[in-house]
Amino acid sequence: MNENSPVIYAENLVKEFGPVRALDDLNLNIAPGEVHGYLGPNGAGKSTTMRVLLGLLRPDAGRIQLFGRDPWRDAVTLHERLAYVPGDVELWPNLTGGEVIDMFLRLRGSYNKARRDELIERFDLDPRKKTRTYSKGNRQKVALISALAADVDLLLLDEPTAGLDPLMEAVFQEVIHEAKGQGRSVLLSSHILAQVEALSDRISIIRAGHIVESGTLSELRHMTRTTIEVETTHSAESLANLSFVHDFRTESVTSAGDRTVFEVDGDHVQEVMNTLTPLGIRSIVAHPPTLEQLLMRHYGDDLSARGVSNGTTKKVS
Amino acid sequence: MSMKVTEAQHAPSPAAGQATLSGTATLLRFMLRRDRIRTSAWVLGIGLLGFYFANAIQLIAETEDELRAVTAMFADPIGRMMTGPGFGMENPTHEALFSAGYVLYLYILIALFSVFTVIRHTRVEEQTGRAELIRANVVGRHATLTAALILTVVANLVAAVLIYAAGLVGDFPAEGSALVAIGGFAVGLFFAGTAAVTAQLSESSRGASGMAGAVIGLAFLIRMGGDAAEVGGNALSWFSPLAWSQQTAPYVEDRWWPLVLPVAFAAVLVWLGYALSTKRDVGASLLPTRLGRASAKPSLGTPLGLATHTLKGGLRGWGIALLLTGLMFGSFAQTMVDAADDLPAEMAQIMPGENMMLGYLAYMAVFMAVFIGAAGVSGLQQLRGEENRGRAEYAMSAPVGRTAWMGAHLTVLVLGVLLILVLVGLGMGLGAVASLEEDGGQYFSELLLAGIMQAPAVLALIGIVTSLLGWLPKLAGAVGWVFVGFGGVMSTFGQLLELPEAVLNLNIFGHLAEYPVEDIDWTPVGVLIAIGAVGIAIGLVGFNRREVNRV
């Protein structure tokens, strides 16, 4: 395997549970040293992907390789090079957090005791408490520390920060940046969009077991709209009829000027700016598309087609 | 953990009473809904056991002579140690034997049920965080504990009515039967109160149940000493909550006043439980939580270390319980020698061989093997639990293969079960040596071997369940328990039921020669070991091929 061959390579992966097609022709490609955000709503197939990657489930069709090997057949060899943080961690109730961390580090082979202690310190974990008394956040810290302290090339993180408070999430982001600096690859699944946005080199969006979008954040932004809030001395009504302007609304009309909000397709921003400039811009705010909007455009269509309210998948930003 | 002392000083004030109990009725309905199967099963089980005891006695000992012979087992100090003060054994009746020999075990079940139920609805709820969800509603501070206590008391009342009915069906006098039943109810009250206190003390449900369980164990040990010392018990017996109800001497003296003790203590304990609960926050405990090790012992970092950690708790529990049972059965040896001459015909049929004592112990070895089989099945079910809870998946995300994971757990389980077999043999041997008046020493090695000789049957059961765990994991536990249950019934009643040979052959535990009364027959030993080994191999192959924790 050469330097640039992918760490994870999945092609037309299919996994069925009875009548449910959990993975439906899934394609995924992750390069060495890449932090890959894996976005999707609950039940989209994120955890199933992780478990196929771990060789715990066997795909029904398609090709999957980790470091050029078959994860089902070569599970043990591959697991020496990766660490996994499950989404909903159940730990052994009468072990302490410290014991669980040590057990995993020893099972994985060599580890750095100083690194372990440093991570325990940074995540502010009391390693002497029995895991049955830990909250979900603390159980997640245990799994994270045992993964991050290990000397591995790939981290598979399944919604790793769902139970962490904002302070700890900041620590998590720092640590992932460090891991990236050390050249590790990370597959980071989440439905918390801001986190993926902050950490990922590339993003894949999965819906109903199929990757619907994949690319860098800026590539994905091309496919969506920028929101512009502008105050102009002259009326901006003339923009309303342009084909690449959407959801145009005038919020207030005063003697000082008009306040207008609209969305513009990503590749027509220049034209809008040309039109706006002669109108006398008093203030302007442009929001880049958030991942909420990205998701809403993909799931919004799908859900409205099924007659489900959009509100169910929308996250408050 | 913050203590609100000021609040505690005027805790159960009458004015606040109304508000602290808000929602009790709703919570009670909710608990009844959640417990509809579990509690019904306990209550019915206790009732049925009462019916069984009351009626089986009359079948085993039909004539007065037979009754005298059976009573001998319960009248001597060792018998009393295990069963109670032994009132009325000098002129035995069926009802007196029922009360002296068996009722204590109904009481222990009632005590366990009361502790489990109270803890499950109080501390378990707090530990899982569900209590917070409940308490965020219009629910008073005392509502959960009150509803849990009402549930336990009502269930115990139903159990008491069933026990009373069992006595009446057995044609026993009404007053004595009422005393037996209300005595059980009083035991339930006492231990519900105990659990109401321990639930406040420990942050973990295991700790709370453990403390209350220790009180039951201590109560049993104290009355062991008191009841063994003299007929009717001595002063020591009056310090045990389990003994108080038996001191009513049902069917013999029929005295009611000893029941004042458990009822009064229960009231004090319940009051204490409420008072303590106001001194702590939701989810907190009065006793500080003990901290564990900050880093693991080196042994934990291997598949075997992990497997040992997972299985040792269960194996240790089974091991201690079965060792004590083995000791107890062994210590009946002298009684069996004494009673050998005039035992009823049915008993003689269950116990083969001319030497009654060895026959009895050979039979007990089979009986114990069924329980050791149960320990094996419950260990295998624990593995299934590890898988269902996602811990197996997490462990195997480290470089631990499916075969290594399963193999390590099976190794620990098989070694543990073999160790229990040895311990049971040792227990029976030591018990017999200690109790026999003449030549006890010569039987020790035979009884030890009798315990160990049951290993092939247990191994075969583990093999069968393991093969299912590999290929049809959903069936494994159920099939295992069916084999255990069938083995238990067949070992106890098989000969009496006169079933066809083919049905008897399905009993895994019925194939080995009943050493030491029969010579060892190596054919079934070989066949059973082969079933075990092949079953384990098939199971490992299956586990290696199938997906882990497939939803």
TrEMBL record, chain A:
One GO CC term on file: plasma membrane
Source species, domain of life: Bacteria
Entry keywords, A to Z: Antibiotic resistance, ATP-binding, Nucleotide-binding, Transport
Annotated SUPFAM superfamilies: P-loop containing nucleoside triphosphate hydrolases
Alphabetical list of InterPro entries matching this protein: AAA+_ATPase (IPR003593), ABC_transporter-like_ATP-bd (IPR003439), ABC_transporter-like_CS (IPR017871), ABC_transporter_ATP-binding (IPR050763), P-loop_NTPase (IPR027417)
Stored SMART domains: AAA
Residues annotated as domain ABC transporter: 8-233
Record's subcellular location: Cell membrane
Swiss-Prot/TrEMBL GO biological process terms: response to antibiotic
Topological type in the membrane: Peripheral membrane protein
GO terms, molecular function: ATP binding; ATP hydrolysis activity
UniProt main location, coarse: membrane
Name by which UniProt lists this protein: ABC transporter ATP-binding protein
TrEMBL record, chain B:
Transmembrane stretches, start-end: 41-61, 102-122, 143-166, 178-199, 211-236, 256-276, 318-337, 357-380, 412-436, 448-471, 478-497, 522-543
Keywords: Membrane, Transmembrane, Transmembrane helix
Entry superkingdom: Bacteria
Record has Acetylation as a keyword: no
Name assigned to this protein: ABC transporter permease
Organism: Nesterenkonia sedimenti
